[in-house]
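Weekly puzzle thread! Below is a chain. First person to post its structure in token form gets bragging rights.
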Amino acid sequence: MSPLRSVPLRLALGIALSCMLAAAPAGAAQASPPPAAAFFGNAEFGGATLSPSGRYLAARTGAPGKPLRLMVVDLQDNSVKTVAAFTDSDIHNFQWVNDERLVFDVTDRNVAPGDMHFAAGLFAVNRDGEAFLQLAARRTGRGVVKSSTLAQKRMLPWHTFMLPQPGSQDSPFIYVESTEFDHAGREVNNNLLRLDTLTGLSQLVERPGKVSKWMLGQDGEPRLATVLKDDKLTLYYRAPGSQGWRQLYQAVAFRGDNGAFTPLGFGPDGLLYVEANNGRDTSALYTVDTASGKLSPAPVLTAPGYDFEGHLVANKDKLLGVRLLTDARDNVWFDAGMKAVQEKIDQQLPNTINLITPARNPQAAHMLVESYSDVQPPVFWLADIKTGKLNKVGESHAAIKPAEMGGQQFVRYKARDGREIPALLTLPAGASPKNLPLVMLVHGGPFVRGTEMGWKAQAQFLASRGYAVLEPEYRGSTGFGNAHFRAGWKQWGLGMQDDIADGARWAARQGYADPDRICIAGGSYGGYAALMGVVKDPGLYRCAVDWMGVTDINLLHDGHWSAVSDASDAYLQYGLPVLVGDQVRDAAQLQATSPIQQAARIKAPLLLAYGGVDRRVPLYHGTLFRDAVKKHNNAVEWVEYPDEGHGLALEADRIDFWTRVEKFLDQNIGAGRKPAQP
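Winning reply:
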């Protein structure tokens, strides 16, 4: 085990990046900002990964208007081979099975969730494009696409999915999930199958109950199974060489109790690494004794001021370090050799944070590098370890120019009760950071980490249009300690809402924001907060933008005859009453903090957008609220995307929506707004 380490924050680096890459001479802002498509269009590069030996590189790449295809580069002779491509679908997730073979599924970026029959399928192919095999059925609007290379009776069903973790990578076998759904389409159980990618034959793994999540060991074999029953979350462990499962740990679900831990993965030495509080306010990285289920006495790694959030970085022989999120995402190395590699790469790429991913083989000649900053979308490089040479592999948003992007600062301000609220502030490039129109951009969840330093399309699009953007991590957000999380329980429309308003007032006091030109915007819970903002603080916000936002808390509990929510029964029964509110004990509070019940009080201009097949916040949240608020407010713009779910999957819909946002903001707090009447 590595000794206790503390991680310094990357705030100073983030500010330096803003100064170096985002600053421009006064008055030098571009006359015409980048189009919405540059921010919200489909990427033409979909990431890359090294083969286990490090000799081959697999990548998803495409061209404008073309589906993403899967390509493999032989790094010894730089030969390139397209190994999988479809005319009607994009390559989606992909993994190396071993050094000769890959497995992947597909998506269609031109099909929204409204095509309820679509499924990803599962395929395998050799790195030279040979031995292509369809392993699981793929469904489209026209039904199942049959494969000529595998008899239909041996093909796995459409609800078969890749695990988000590699297997042993030294055989043709992988593990896949076969997910069971109830009549409403909600996930109820995951079976685990051991699948031969050469023959398509599979074998069912014994499970200890209705498993919701599986985790493999470093050897690629099943080691952990998570079972959620009622309000109890139970973790089962299967030791190497054993076929049976035994209970390792049990906790109350949904509450983040102080004794709880979250498995992160196994190291090559077999140690189980977890995130846990263990009496601390902020969580840290610990190990767990798989014999007793007890945490190590001291943490392996801490991140002062932050909960531990990250994953292990290892080769097949040793744990090298972790990928960790504080204010930004970065590598923290335990291995001296990796520290030296990091220093060399940072010297060549001095203006970015450079995330290094080694191959499984410790003797591999190459490593993969992902470089990013607050103004630079991710760029992928291949690093030659021997020569130190970097070759660009691809970039996620090639049309974005860093000099035109807004610089970021990670700040902390005081709420009215003294609680410290972390937030990310993005300021337009080239503009004086004073007296700007401000958008309070509120994250969804709400009990999640909202944002981090690094290029993000929404905030940068708004900054490119001249707006300051503040993204608060209001109480209830995770990532900043247990007390901050618990302070948000049953605080929808109350303390959580006040934290957002206090951030807007802080920005005005600091001189960043014009107090007469502030708008609040967000999706999901953020949309709820936008609506409650203009209810609770009508003098603060000039307008609100809500996409897919909750409009009635009781509807989260009860739903509506027209659609079924995809929230699990366990969350509705045990999580929602604790985190948001109990329908009986908190009835008065839920009514007072539901926007639909306060619709008559809303006079500010609204932009409302909802998805026709959204099952997290079904369409009735939007239509019922729209009809209620329009009785008292004529300044309501409504847009429905019939085939969209809880988000905007289609490129055309994303561009359309954010173009509407641009026009709406301009009319209400931007250059196009009409002066107030005397």
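Puzzle host: Confirmed. Bonus trivia for everyone else. The first strand starts at residue 5 and ends at 6.
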